[in-house]
Design brief:
By secondary structure, the chain is an all-alpha fold. The N and C termini lie far apart (62 Å). It comes from Paraburkholderia sejongensis. InterPro entries: DnaJ_C_subfamily_28, DnaJ_homolog_subfam-C_membr-28.
């Protein structure tokens, strides 16, 4: 397959060098990266309205939250906060997995409650450990 890929890339480069792509329709124009060609027509209008109103799909929202938690996790040094963040990350991972149709399908609220309980246990354990030292 790599040989075929290399051959295709070589032919594309040769055609570009000869200027065969210079007069194509839309040459030099920006690409329409938010093209909805693969989205069914009856869903496009609703998606566009939601997007213009600032709403994003739950998976995108959760991925952003996960990224923020990872950044926060890298900056934390105390063990209690570290465990609390890891519990929240675990809950978000589980929620994302269910959105993707993964093996574990749990409601978002259930995942949030698991994270809260883990955080409470970590918080009470951290204070108990701090008091015994």
């Amino acid at each position: 397959m790599r040989l075929l890929d290399a051959l295709v890339e070589q032919r594309i480069a040769a055609a570009a060098a000869r200027g065969e792509f210079d007069d194509l329709p839309g040459a030099g124009a920006p690409l329409a990266l938010d093209d909805d060609a693969l989205v069914p027509e009856e869903v496009r209008v609703a998606n566009r309205i939601l997007k213009n109103a600032g709403f994003v799909p739950p998976a995108v929202e959760q991925l952003r939250a996960l990224r923020d938690l990872q950044t926060e996790l890298n900056a934390v040094s105390d063990q209690a906060t570290l465990c609390r963040l890891q519990a929240r990350i675990l809950a978000l991972d589980m929620a994302l997995e269910s959105l993707r149709g993964g093996p574990m399908v749990l409601p978002r609220e259930y995942c949030r409650r698991i994270a809260e309980r883990l955080s409470e246990r970590v918080g009470s354990g951290a204070t108990a450990n701090a008091g015994s030292q």
